[in-house]
Each structure stands twice: as C-alpha cells, then as structure tokens.
Design a protein that fits this description.
The chain is mostly beta strands. The protein has 2 domains: 2-49 and 162-362, Glucose Permease (Domain IIA) (Distorted Sandwich); 61-160, Immunoglobulin-like, CATH 2.60.40.1590. The chain is built from 5 helices and 24 strands. The strands form 5 sheets. Strands 16, 17, 18, 19, 20, 21, 22, 23 and 24 form a 9-stranded antiparallel β-sheet that branches. The protein has a 5-stranded antiparallel β-sheet with strand order 3-4-5-9-8. Strands 2-12-13-15 form a 4-stranded mixed β-sheet. The longest helix is centred in the middle third of the chain and has 15 residues, at 181-195.
C-alpha cells in the first residue's frame, strides 16, 4: 500500500539538507534570534515523528541502574566487573557510553557484536563509546571488556526509533548533482575514510558546544527522497516499503535504485543566515578541509579516540588541514554549497567511523566528562 503526497512548486526554494520541524515538535525549539526559514508548506513531509517510545520489556537491569549513576554487577559467577552504562535505555541513532570501573590494563580489549571496538584506559577504568547508527538494527547485543584474569560481559538492549521520511524537491541543477553517482561515490569514500580516523589521544575536555549560535538542529536519521521540482505539480507515490539507498555522503552506487535519489540523513541541520559564524564544538585537530559534490565546502575535526565532528555546506572555511583548534574557535561561515538550496549548517558526529545523532553524543555522562583517558588503544585491529 502506498502513501501519496502532493506538494507545490515553492519547494524549489528549500534547503536540500535542511530540516523543518514536524507538527509534533514545532514550537519546542528555541527560535530567539534565529533567521527566517522556509515555511513548512514548502515541503512534502511524510511521517517525521522521531519520539522515543518506552524501552522494550526485559531490558538489562544494568541499564536501569545506570539512570541513577549506580554501577552494575553481572550475574555470571566469573564476571565480577563493575560497569557504568549511559543512557539507561539506549536506542538506534544514539551512543552507548560504558565505564568498566577499576579495570587497569595498558592495552584494553573490547568487543561489540563479537567484533573488536576501540576502548581506552582511563583514571577510573576502561572507557568504551559504542556508536548505534540509524542504519543498524535495534535488538539485544553483547558488549565485552577484557580484564586481567577474566572478561566482563553485558547484554545491551538497543531500542527501536522511528526517524521519519521526507520528500524534497530540487531545481534541475541540484537534481543533476544528486544523480551524479560517479562523483558521489568518489567523494563518499574520501569523506568516510577521513571520518573513520582513530587517534589515541583525547583532545577535548568539558561540555561540547553548539556550532552555530541561536539555532537548534533536527533531522538526524530521517529518510529523504529527492525529486525534480517540476514533479511537485503531480502526486508522488511513495511505497510504504521503500527504503533509502544508504546514508548521506556514503557510496550508494551499488545499492538498488528506488526511482529517486535517496539517503538517510547522517547529521542535524541548523538553520542560520549566510555568513553566520561556525565554531568548533570541541577542541581537536582539523582532519580535512575539502570541496565535495553533496556536502559542499566541508570541515572535519578529529577530537581523538574515534570522535570526529563534521561541518557541511560552508560558504567559507577559516581553518586549514592540520590546524589545532580550541572549543568555540571560529572555523567557518554558513553557506549553501553542495546539495543545499538555502543557507544552513549540516552538523554531524562520527564515532569510530559511524554517524550518530549529535545530540545523543553531547548528552554524555558526567563521569566521562570528568575522566582522564590514556593514550592506550588496543583494538584498532579489525577496523
């Protein structure tokens, strides 16, 4: 059974990578001082609700304890590790933060879903940050942390999340850009490779900042389907079983063609006027300043230990590759380069090379903010 969406020609003025809030969330964002944006009537929107439902029944009791900051102890007789977990009910698109307290190892080893995942020694034990990208399934998965003489094992329940869908209409020039599979594939491999950098030192401290002042972002994980602007004069049928070909900025040249360019949005869009200042959300080293067909003028910052922030569609970059930047330092100006028909900032977060909701990353627990991590990295194998 299909869904039918009828949209007017005014959608051609929309930012191709800009999120307009759905009815369920409209009015909740702080819009004081925010620039005028294109009204919702200019967009064809399908099911954009991304609210979190209740945690699935049978969730690991350790998760419930983590909500109050308590440590959890495994039931297995040979597993005596104490582990802090945050959040209490992880879900698709988020990040699971784990601290194995009191585990001292110069070369910690950890696995997630039976595959190695980077983890780091800290003054309180071993820290693991597990990305839960929107393109991976919900379910129950195993996290392990090796310790001298044994192994800590936790079963983690990852809850489902509805990210919604959107139809976006483009003028001819941008539609041709969205269908240039060869350049998209080439750029996607380059950007994803840079975003997968794993530097052993943690370069940041303290709370992470908003990259654009007076603006709140939305739209992580939404499935977006792109059509020519002239298509808005007729009804568009989107089958309920339709799925995007992959993630925005990834190589989808081998994915099944759905009849329209389509990607899952890998960050949040922050409306802002052209030329508005963009600042580094945390301290780090500039990993890339480049020009790409979809993300336009792009800056990527390596914050260490697998955390990389991304800034797309810039008008101007104010930093160069290799620069060390501090939190709050200006790194660029808002623009509309790449696949965007209006000025805004696409802000993304990558953890061990996988995109996550930036808001979930910035809601890290206090024990991680206050911990000092070492440079030990034992699990780069298998990346």
């Amino acid at each position: 059974m299909g869904m039918r969406v009828i949209c007017g020609l005014m959608v051609a003025a929309l930012a191709a990578c800009e999120v307009v809030e759905s009815d369920k969330t409209a009015g909740k964002a702080d819009t004081a001082g925010a620039p005028a944006i294109v009204p919702e009537s200019a967009r064809g929107t399908v099911a954009t609700d991304s609210t979190l439902g209740p945690a699935p029944a049978g969730a690991d009791s350790a998760l419930a304890k983590a909500a109050t900051g308590e440590s959890s102890r495994a039931a297995a007789g040979d597993d005596t590790g104490m582990v802090r977990l945050h959040p209490a009910a992880p879900r698709r698109g988020g990040v699971l933060f784990a601290l194995a307290e009191g585990v001292a190892s110069p070369s910690p080893r950890c696995t997630w879903k039976s595959a190695p995942i980077p983890c780091y020694g800290a003054d309180g034990g071993v820290v693991v940050t597990v990305p839960l990208p929107a393109d991976e399934d919900a379910g129950t998965f195993t996290l392990t942390i090796d310790r001298p003489g044994g192994r800590i094992v936790r079963q983690i329940v990852v809850a489902e999340r509805d990210f919604g869908r959107e139809l976006i209409f483009l003028p001819d020039s941008l539609y041709r850009r969205a269908t240039n599979a060869r350049e998209i594939a080439r750029d996607a491999r380059a950007v994803r490779g840079i975003a997968s950098v794993e530097t052993s030192d943690r370069r940041w401290s303290g709370r992470w900042r908003e990259p654009v002042g007076g603006s709140r972002g939305s739209g992580y994980g939404v499935e977006r389907y792109y059509y020519r602007a002239t298509d808005s004069t007729r009804s568009i049928t989107l089958d309920t079983q339709a799925r995007t070909r992959g993630t925005f900025g990834t190589d989808t040249s081998d994915a099944p063609f759905t009849g329209a360019p389509s990607w899952r949005h890998a960050g949040i869009d922050m409306p802002a006027r052209r030329g508005a200042a963009i600042v580094a959300t945390a301290a780090g080293q500039v990993a890339d300043v480049g020009e790409y067909i979809l993300s336009g003028r792009t800056v990527l910052i390596d914050h260490g230990q697998g955390a990389v922030s991304a800034y797309f569609h810039l008008d101007t970059a104010l930093v160069a590759k290799g620069d060390m930047v501090r939190a709050g330092q200006r790194i660029g100006r808002v623009g509309a380069t790449g696949l965007a028909t209006g000025p805004h900032l696409h802000f993304g977060m990558y953890v061990h090379g996988k995109d996550v909701d930036p808001d979930a990353w910035r809601q890290m627990p206090d024990w991680l903010l206050n911990s000092r991590t070492s440079a030990a990295d034992s699990t780069r194998q298998g990346r």
